[in-house]
Design goal:
Layout lengths: L10 H52 L1
Organism: Mycena maculata
Protein name: DUF6533 domain-containing protein
């Protein structure tokens, strides 16, 4: 038994698909930008956070 041939998409459906692909790429770019800024913030502030963390750990051990 032969399977039926697929129905070709309409031009409007193709336009919607292209819009979705473009939106997905834009979303991916924003996600990469957000992650990059988060990592940058961690790297820049790491030297300030380590002493604070060590003070907190030593305070909890002395109590």
């Amino acid at each position: 038994m032969d399977s039926p041939s697929p129905i070709p998409p309409t031009p409007a459906e193709l336009d919607q698909l292209l819009q979705l692909v473009g939106d997905a790429k834009t979303t991916s770019y924003f996600a990469v930008a957000a992650l990059t800024s988060l990592i940058y913030d961690h790297v820049v502030s790491f030297d300030k956070e380590v002493p604070l963390l060590l003070q907190r750990v030593s305070a909890s051990h002395s109590a």
